[in-house]
């Protein structure tokens, strides 16, 4: 099969890789209908995360089940399925508490690589959620978004305690931040403030339900949020970048007793204990337990109540994955969808 | 009046200070029935927090109202009252959300000093809670504990989401940690694990409801907690120290999706973003909104359902405050009560 491999920073190649096979009796093999490039793929692409030799890439996926292992009982060949970037058993105590990304048997899909024609999905019964029948083709991008960026933005909004009566700020206008805006609205937030200075992203933020746009950053961004919230700060802030500046901005934009949901993969961030202490905020985040939300998100998408697939503003054949990486790296595209 | 003043690290003196007077029409003057030395008073006493000249000391207090300002409407002379270490209006949006320690008009009682015969209490209507009638003398230590250490331990337990079915770990065996144990039990926790290596504190931890004692610290402490929780970590961890080691131990002892309630005043702590991210814990803490819990805590104490006054294992006349500081600094006493 064809699949994307990162050889060195900036060097993504789509090449022949061995077809995946059932390794564990709990595995499934899927044929990908669509896959994509994630903002987090840019960390190794940019050389910020060290590479340990050539690495298969990708962890977002939707597709049709081709084959299942002998112990798979609920997933069947022919089903259209969506899964998260963590494979999880969905039965352990951590999964049952809703934290499938902390499953005691979890497998990181990025270590398998789903920017490819076929992929092995471990723990198929726990990981995969089948759609009700074969979805219309125009729903595929939104279902693919559910695999990571929508589920991650949703978790950010839940972790930030977005809900009725709340003012929610979203730091970061990438696909996850944009999906956080959508999630905050779905969860009933009264006001959703997007922090963005890019016109096309501002426009999508508005379409996803942002009521206000703030273009200032850092201390000025914090001051602007304070102005907009009677000097108190927001009830809820979703952090969807992962840098020291964005985390600091998120914490300082939150009122005492408010909630920060941080879902940007943290890079070189150190939080000062005394600042966090005196801020009185709630802080929660990490790798999103997307699996928890998949049934609900698939329902909303198939009922056409949400359309998160709009985050894909570039569609390429899988063989042109390198251009997808370049476009996202240069911020020419929000998110690149790849068709195997 | 007599009052304690810290002149330099290790140099606490009780001396004549001016009698407090009504400054704002929302003030009250109380005559202290009892006051005490806080673990956090030891930071400047030990020279860890810089002193900016001689400082009046103390922020915990119970006593009888002597006089009120012209705008005080609910507090009356003659009432026995308990207040928190933050004076707060209890009417602003932050207070109404339960975060009186983040009140937009808050005043730190430590800047006034309550290790004294009399004290001015700002925002008396918002700050003070009157007991139902004059309490029996033997209840005074417990009511004094409610002013800070009990309320702070309670907030730690709430922030750690202690409750039915939960295993709660308490890091720190000072008065706050011990009160956190008591609070976790009151909130219905199934199992409460105290981390302590001091026999008298272990004994009090047991009396307050600890079901297990762990004497290991650091990585060994974390390993022991994992052993006791099926490899997963605790649901809830109360951090009541404030150092890098204790925060790290608390976070690593918590399962994915679990809660850390941190109430030890943070000193020289830096949390690594990536560790926090991948831990998937909830983190919440800071200066406790004790005022929120006072009515409930006073009720439990006056009904003799809890006896947090046991944390006072040394009682001295106010004039011997210096010995109270020394005894706590040398860990000869858990907490020193001072009688004006």
TrEMBL record, chains A, B:
Residues 10-338 form the Enoyl reductase (ER) domain. The keyword Transmembrane does not apply. Keywords: Metal-binding, Oxidoreductase, Zinc. Pfam families: ADH_N, ADH_zinc_N. Coiled coil: none annotated. InterPro entries: ADH-like_C, ADH-like_N, ADH_Zn_CS, ER, GroES-like_sf, NAD(P)-bd_dom_sf. PROSITE patterns: ADH_ZINC. Gene3D superfamilies: Medium-chain alcohol dehydrogenases, catalytic domain, NAD(P)-binding Rossmann-like Domain. Its cofactor is Zn(2+). PANTHER family: DEHYDROGENASE, ZINC-CONTAINING, PUTATIVE (AFU_ORTHOLOGUE AFUA_2G02810)-RELATED (PTHR42813:SF2), ZINC-TYPE ALCOHOL DEHYDROGENASE-LIKE (PTHR42813). Belongs to the zinc-containing alcohol dehydrogenase family. This is Zinc-dependent alcohol dehydrogenase family protein.
